[in-house]
Sequence to fold (133 residues):
Amino acid sequence: DPNTEVKNSDLQDTNRMIGDVNFYLNNTDNPHEAELEVMIAEQQYAGKGVATEVLHLMMQYAVNDIGVDDFVVRIKDTNNASIHIFENKLGFKETERAPVFKEVTLRRSVCDDLKASLNQWTSHANRIKYALE
Fold:
């Protein structure tokens, strides 16, 4: 939807961090499981597709470069926007609710369809080689 997606020029003019996205490989029982998290701190970018975009890029990297085959997220049960992104945009399924922590756990296994989708969603991205000098 052109009304909700961030325009490329909006982000090119940003010389500051507007949020962050991370994954952690902290499941000792499944070293190929990544726990994802995303936060858009600058409210003017919330609801404009930034979180979905960076999650596509991070998931593609995790799958293709690190060998991740399962994703998990733990989200505050009142954070309907994040739950919507993971369920409706990324195909995650709810697997657990923890009322004591007021959070919901969602999971997504990597399959050929997800790999193809990630490669399609990120085909516009240019990888920048990073080297220490």
Q: What stands out?
A: Confidence is low (pLDDT under 50) at residues 1-9. Helices lie at 8-12, 50-66, 80-89, 112-121.
